[in-house]
Amino acid sequence: MSFTPLFGQKIMYGADYNPEQWLEHDEGFETILNKDLEMMQQAHCNIMSVGIFSWAQLEVNEDEFDFSWLDEVLDRLNEKGIKVFLATPSGARPHWLANKYPEVLRVNERRERALFGARHNHCMTSPKYRERVRIINTKLAERYGHHPAVIGWHLSNEYGGQCHCPLCQAKFREWLKQKYGTIENLNKQWWNTFWSHTYTDWSYIESPSSIGENGVHALYLDWMRFSSENALDFCKAERDTVKAITPDLPVTANFMEFFYDYDYFNWAPELDFISWDAYPQWHNFADPDYIASYTAMNHDLMRSLKGGQPFVLMESTPTNTNWRPLSTLKRPGMNILSSLQAVAHGADSVQYFQWRKSRGSSEKFHGAIVDHVGHLNTRAGREVIELGKILEKLSEVAGSAVDAKVAIVFDTPNRWAVDNAQGPRNKGVDYLPLCLDYYRPFFKRGIAVDVIDETCDLSKYKLVIAPMTYMMRDGYADRVKKFVADGGTYLSTYWSGIVNETDLCFLGGFPGELMDVMGIWEEEIDSLDEDVIVPVRLEPLGLERGFKSDNYYGTQLFGLVNPAPDTEVLLSYDYQFYKGKPVLTRHPYGQGVAYYVASRMDPGFLDTLAQMLSQELKLTNAFNEPAMPFREGVSAMARCNDKYRYVFLSNYSEHDQMVKLNSVYEDMLAEPEQQRHISGIVYLKPYDARVFRQAL
Ligand code: GLA
Ligand code: ZN
C-alpha cells in the first residue's frame, strides 16, 4: 500500500520564513533576501512557510494594506524553485485590532480579559475577529492563491486555548441546547441533583471556573468538547474563506505534541493533510529510549489521524528551543537522526522553526538555520546542509506507507474525563505515560504501531491495546466486541469501562459493556503512594503462556477483579488482602482473546508481555522478521510502497551499537565510493541514522 505523495515525488525540506523582521535592516531587505535565497539553495531547501505572524506588516491599519514586501518574497522564492505554504496570519493580531475592538481579546477562566500581548490569545467566537480574519484571508487568497510558488495553506498557527468571554458563554449555551434539547435532560445527564446544582434556566450555565462551578465533571467535559469544536469552527471558517478562492490548494493546521485542549481526531477530517511541530527534549533524559519512543508515538499519532496518510513535519529546531528550563543543544548527528525519525514514521517533509534567527524579542535565542553570524558555516548549518542532501536521496520514500498491525488507543475526551474525575488518584492517573508504557516495548522491537482513538476502525489490526479507557464512548464497546469476536486480540487495563460520555458511571459492574469480553468484574480499585511496590506471583497458566519469572511488580493503582469461570489467571497479586486476585488475565471470546492488566506494571513485565503477544500473533518488525528487542537506544521502523521496503535504523544512544542483518539490503545513503549492498553486522555510531532498501 502507498499514498500519492502530498507534493510530488520528494521529501519537502525547509522552514518558517519570517523575512518581514528584516524589512528595515541596515544592509537593506534586498541584500538579506538575496543571501537567504542563496543559502536556501545551499541547504537544498524546497519549501518555506511564509506569513505566519505577518498581519501587522500586511494590514498596517484597518483596511490599509501593504503587500509589496510579500509580493517580492514570493516572486523571489518562485524564481529559485522554492515552494511556499502560505499562512493565514490569525495566530497573532495587530495592535490596532485589539485596541479598536476589545471583544477580540480573550477572557480567562477567572473572567479576566487579557490586555494586548503575546499571541494565540484571541477569542475565537468574536464576530469582529472572524470578520477581520476573513478580510485579510480573502486578500491573501485573491492575491497569492494562484501564485506559482504557493502549494498549500498553513491555517493560522498552532490553534490552542479557550475563551470564557460573554460571547463564548452564549455560544456554549446554544451548543448545549443543541446537544441536550431540554434543561431537564441536561440536568439528568450531568447528575445535577447532587449538591443542589439543578439548572432551571439555560442562562445560569457558566463555563467551569476555579471561582465558580468546578465539581460537575460533565460540564467540564462538554466545555472541553465545545472549546475544541469552537476552535475547529474558527479554523473551518478560515479554510472556507481560502477554499472559496482556491478550491484546489490543500490546507493544514500545524498541530502540537499530544495536545491537551483539542480533540485532533475531530479536526483531522476537516483538513487536507496533517502537520505538526515537534520539539522533543533530546538529551535531557538518561534513558535514550524514553524520549525516542515518546516522540515516535507522537509521530504515529499524526500519521494515524488520517488513516496512515503521510504527514508534514512543519516545525522542529536544528539546535535548541529557548522556552524550556534548559535550552540543550542537539548533539552532532541528532538533527539528522530526529528528522529521519519523523520520515521513518510517515513524514514526507522536514521543516524547521525558523529560517533566520531573530535579532530581538522573544525568540532571539531559539535555534534557527541561519544563526546570528549570518552564514551556514556553523556546526548546525553544516548538518542542515548534510540532511538536505540525504533527503534528496530519499525522494522515492515520499508517499510510502507504514503498515501497522498493532494499535494503541489514546483518546482525548477520555483523557479529559479521567484527569478530571476526582477518582482513585487525584495526584495524576498518568494516562499518557501509561499509553507510552505499552507503546515502548513495541517501539523497542521495531514493530509498527498506530495511535488511534475510540472512534477509529479496529478491523485492520491484530492487536489493539487500550490502556485506561475510563470513559467508553458511544459505540466503542460494540466495535471492541466485534473486533474480538472476529479474532482480534484486545488488551485493556485497570480503570476501564467506568463511565459513559457524560461521566455517568456504568451500573452493574466494571468494565461496563465489556465485562463479558474481558471476562472480569473490577470490583474495587486501590491507590497507593508510588514508592509502594506490590509484588506478583506467577500462576501455572502464566508459565504455560511464556512468563518465565514472577519478578514483576505493580504501582500506583490496583484493580481488584473477579475473574469469570472461563478466564485464565496468568499472574496474581502477592500482597496484603489483594493476595490471589488476578494481575493478568486472558479470556477467549468468539474467535479472539481479551487480556486485562490490573495495575501500572513495571517495564520488565511489559516487555515480557509484548514478547509473548508478538510471538502469539506472529508480529513482525521493520525487517519483516520475528521481533526481538534491539539494544539500548536502537530501533527500526519501515515504510513500504509497491516496490520497496525502506528500513530506517536509528541509534538514539551516545554509544556505538550494532545490529545484525539477516539478508542483503541497499544502503540508500551510501556515497558513490562506498559499498551499496550490505549484509551481516551493521555498526552504528552514536546518534547514527541509516536507511536501507529492499525490493519486495
Ligand atoms: C511553536 C511556534 C513557532 C515557534 C516555535 C518555537 O512551534 O509555532 O512560532 O514559536 O514554537 O519552538
Ligand atoms: Zn470569547
From TrEMBL:
<dbReference type="InterPro" id="IPR003476">
    <property type="entry name" value="Glyco_hydro_42"/>
</dbReference>
<dbReference type="InterPro" id="IPR013738">
    <property type="entry name" value="Beta_galactosidase_Trimer"/>
</dbReference>
<dbReference type="InterPro" id="IPR013529">
    <property type="entry name" value="Glyco_hydro_42_N"/>
</dbReference>
<feature type="binding site">
    <location>
        <position position="168"/>
    </location>
    <ligand>
        <name>Zn(2+)</name>
    </ligand>
</feature>
<keyword id="KW-0862">Zinc</keyword>
<dbReference type="InterPro" id="IPR017853">
    <property type="entry name" value="GH"/>
</dbReference>
<dbReference type="Pfam" id="PF08532">
    <property type="entry name" value="Glyco_hydro_42M"/>
</dbReference>
<dbReference type="Pfam" id="PF08533">
    <property type="entry name" value="Glyco_hydro_42C"/>
</dbReference>
<dbReference type="GO" id="GO:0004565">
    <property type="term" value="F:beta-galactosidase activity"/>
</dbReference>
<comment type="similarity">
    <text>Belongs to the glycosyl hydrolase 42 family.</text>
</comment>
<feature type="binding site">
    <location>
        <position position="165"/>
    </location>
    <ligand>
        <name>Zn(2+)</name>
    </ligand>
</feature>
<keyword id="KW-0378">Hydrolase</keyword>
<keyword id="KW-0479">Metal-binding</keyword>
<feature type="active site" description="Proton donor">
    <location>
        <position position="158"/>
    </location>
</feature>
<dbReference type="GO" id="GO:0046872">
    <property type="term" value="F:metal ion binding"/>
</dbReference>
<dbReference type="GO" id="GO:0006012">
    <property type="term" value="P:galactose metabolic process"/>
</dbReference>
<feature type="active site" description="Nucleophile">
    <location>
        <position position="315"/>
    </location>
</feature>
<dbReference type="InterPro" id="IPR013739">
    <property type="entry name" value="Beta_galactosidase_C"/>
</dbReference>
<feature type="domain" description="Beta-galactosidase C-terminal">
    <location>
        <begin position="633"/>
        <end position="693"/>
    </location>
</feature>
<feature type="binding site">
    <location>
        <position position="323"/>
    </location>
    <ligand>
        <name>substrate</name>
    </ligand>
</feature>
<feature type="binding site">
    <location>
        <position position="163"/>
    </location>
    <ligand>
        <name>Zn(2+)</name>
    </ligand>
</feature>
<dbReference type="InterPro" id="IPR029062">
    <property type="entry name" value="Class_I_gatase-like"/>
</dbReference>
<keyword id="KW-0326">Glycosidase</keyword>
<feature type="domain" description="Glycoside hydrolase family 42 N-terminal">
    <location>
        <begin position="16"/>
        <end position="394"/>
    </location>
</feature>
<feature type="domain" description="Beta-galactosidase trimerisation">
    <location>
        <begin position="404"/>
        <end position="619"/>
    </location>
</feature>
<feature type="binding site">
    <location>
        <position position="157"/>
    </location>
    <ligand>
        <name>substrate</name>
    </ligand>
</feature>
<dbReference type="InterPro" id="IPR013780">
    <property type="entry name" value="Glyco_hydro_b"/>
</dbReference>
<feature type="binding site">
    <location>
        <position position="123"/>
    </location>
    <ligand>
        <name>Zn(2+)</name>
    </ligand>
</feature>
<dbReference type="GO" id="GO:0009341">
    <property type="term" value="C:beta-galactosidase complex"/>
</dbReference>
<dbReference type="Pfam" id="PF02449">
    <property type="entry name" value="Glyco_hydro_42"/>
</dbReference>
<feature type="binding site">
    <location>
        <position position="119"/>
    </location>
    <ligand>
        <name>substrate</name>
    </ligand>
</feature>
<protein>
    <recommendedName>
        <fullName>Beta-galactosidase</fullName>
        <ecNumber>3.2.1.23</ecNumber>
    </recommendedName>
</protein>
